[in-house]
Amino acid sequence: MLYLAEVKRQSKGFIGGARTKLKLLACQRNDQSWTAVSSEEMLPTEEASHLGEGALVTVHLGANRQIQGKPEQAGAKVVGLLQSFSSLLEKSKTQQAEVEQWKQSLSYQAQELSRREMEMEANLEQFEQMAEEKEQIEQQRQQVNSSQEELQKLKQGLEDERTEIEGAWEHLRTEQQRLAEKQSSVLDEAQTNEIQELISRLESAATPTESLAEQLNLALEVMNRQQANLDHHRQQLEQQRADAQQKSAEAEQQGEELQQLRQAFQEAQVSLEEAKRALQSQEHTLARKRDSANLLALQLQTQEQLRESLSDLVSGSCPSQQVDVEKLENMLLGELQETVENLQRDWKKLLPFVNDQEEELASQRQSVEELQEKLQVVSDQERPSVEKELAEEQDRYRFLEQTLVGQRRSIQERKEVLNQHLRVLRRRQGFVELEMETSAIDLESILAQSEAQQNQTKEELQKLENQIGEVKLSVEQSQAQVQQQADEQATRQNQLRELEESWQQTQASALQLGSRVSVYEKNLQQWQEHCEEVRQKLEAVAQQMNGITESGNHQLQILTQLQQAVSSLKGSPEMAG
Predict the structure, then answer these.
(1) Are 8 and 22 in contact (CB under 8 A)?
(2) Which of 213, 242, 417, 461 has the fewest C-beta atoms lying within 10 Å of its C-beta?
(3) 33 shares its domain with 162
(4) How far apart are CA 338 and CA 360, in angstroms?
(5) Contacts (Cβ under 8 Å, ≥6 apart) of 458
(6) Are residues 209 and 141 in the same domain?
(7) Number of domains within the chain
(8) Average pLDDT per run of 10 along the chain, which is 577 residues long?
(9) In a 3-state reduction of DSSP, which class is residue 44?
(10) Phi, then psi, of 216 in degrees rounded to 5
(11) Residues 56 and 184 in one domain
(12) Are residues 106 and 69 in the same domain?
């Protein structure tokens, strides 16, 4: 099974070097996924001794938990996994954005469906009201048609009676002509009776028009009620038209407000984006200054270590471990030579270990510098992880540096002791050496220059930290301002959404009222035209009724005069004789 491991080094002792072990971090499953290893299992190996501590490697383990093959550096694999994870993360963000878009689309569709449902309900109520009004209009139309049919029957009866009366009058005129022809002669009783019978027939043929007038008045009253009802509906129509115009004006006003709010929202969004870009620039400046401060702090630490090393060199002429030269002079030459060889052997054993520590420290310094360079070009999303890794590497570097301070001093003291023993041995063996004295004055001058550089670095670091404080304060103020603008923008967005919903509802209501007014006006126009048509017919019948009534009254007057004439003729002496 494939495992991801970290290289660990554990020291055996002061001289005995270090053992290399692998700490298992994660294992790969059959489905190519990785699972963290919960145990603190360490596997010894010498195959990874050339790698620095903390290096990541991949290693295959068998069923007996033994390492199979040579561990391979896992940098490329980890980078590939991180890239795959980044791709999956970007894909997840894209899918999440699509889901949000779908949610917004579904929300808008739900609002549109709700609006259309409300519109359909309003139209349904309107259609039901129109159906009721149409039914009333149809009933009234049937009443008018019934009245019109009765009027037609009355008119036909009047026409029939007029025809009959005209026939009687024609007969009467004929008799009058006969009477005129026989004016010289005297009417006999039979003729007189016949004339009276004709007069009686004419009187009975004169149909009374009171019932017809009453029916006509009732029809006209019905029409007046219809007209009043029409006027009432017309008032309602005007009120609905005013409401529709008011709704349209409200929708237009809300549309203008919505347009202004959208423009203000867009302008505020542009301002917010500019503020965000300015904040990002300030954050980048702050990050660069912090990186510079970290470099100065590291440089200051290096200068401090250099100063300590110079101090050790200055004080090296007076070793901390005093050597009894008189004892060495009195010691047997062979014993002195053996002591020198033992000291040389111990010093040579310690020197490789210190050199390894120096190489590891140099490698650690290089890692810190690489991370600092990477921090200059890394993106905002990756910056926190890189900063965390840089802090860990810097802590590790400081720990190694502190460890090496004592080791350097110890090896320097051992070397000084070895040199003293070696000088005594060579002098007793007869060798003459020209010792090169170290100029304490030169070392002290270098030490003074080192302290001056260290003080200058401290001043630069303090100045840079003050600048960092100012930039940090500016960043915090900009962050508060950006947050305030973002909150205001969110409030504007909510207001924009609410106003847009209200505008849509008002616009839909205005359209409904406009449609209702249009249909209502069309129905009222048809109703008014029908009522006008019936009214014109009733007025024509009323005029005819007035003419018939006048004609009947005139006929009755003539019949009365004729009856009087016949009665006078019948009572004359000639008729009596």
Answers:
(1) yes
(2) 242
(3) no
(4) 34
(5) 300
(6) yes
(7) 2
(8) 79 52 81 76 74 78 76 75 76 80 77 75 72 68 67 70 70 68 56 67 59 72 79 84 87 87 88 89 84 78 70 53 75 84 83 81 84 79 83 81 73 81 82 47 65 83 88 90 90 87 84 79 79 76 71 69 67 50
(9) strand
(10) -65, -40
(11) no
(12) no
